Amino acid sequence: MATTIEHTVQSTLGSSNPEAEPRHHEHQQPPPPVPNTHRRSSFSFSLPTPGLVGSIAEGAHYAGGLQPVHSSQVEHENSEQHVKHRRPEQLGSDDPAVEEVYRSVIEDLQEVYCGRVTLDILRRRFKRDAVFEDPLCVARGWDQYAAQWFALPKVITKSERTSFRIITATVSPNRLIFEQTQVYTFKFIGLTKVIPSVVIVDLDDDFRITRLEDQWYGSPLPKRWGASFLRKLNAKVTPWIFRVPKDNA
To answer: Which of 108, 149, 163, 229 could be a cystine partner for 125, CB 3.0 to 4.6 Å?
Structure first.
């Protein structure tokens, strides 16, 4: 009986269901992918816009590469850079602003070139240390350039401007360049001389002349040693010959 039971147990263990045994030789299938339930971040890199590229070219710095860039912000930054790096404002000869900005300067210069100089004109239009140059003189300071202007009506009977044209005018720095034709009639000999010239005028912030260069026939002023010496000598001698009214200002 015991032998029969033992044999039966062994037979039962030896005849176990093969499907119930673990199959170690087979590969287990990977678990199915888990759906990504995390929400994507809305943070993104912003690319430079054409307007921003333009601002970089003008000297602006792109410091907000990781921040959203709004077109209004780019335009504001561009306008600030334009103000900081603004070039001198250039006015054309036909620009109405020329007449407003330089009208009084042009009128005063016409008076002195036509021999109608006064102390009031020189005081309001020229700085005391201004420089006046033409092919005949290099006058520095009030005593020298005032004598040149007051000497003009002493040696001519008539001076007339027959043509005038503004070449260019700038604001900050203040510079006026024009061309004119002046006709002089000299005393005693009656000689008439027509002189076309290009006049370069530099002015300070109050539009008072700091330097005036009169280039006859549009030619550069003589710089050779002999010519330069004679021009300086003329500026020193003229105040001794032609009296300038006393300036009590």
So the answer is: 108
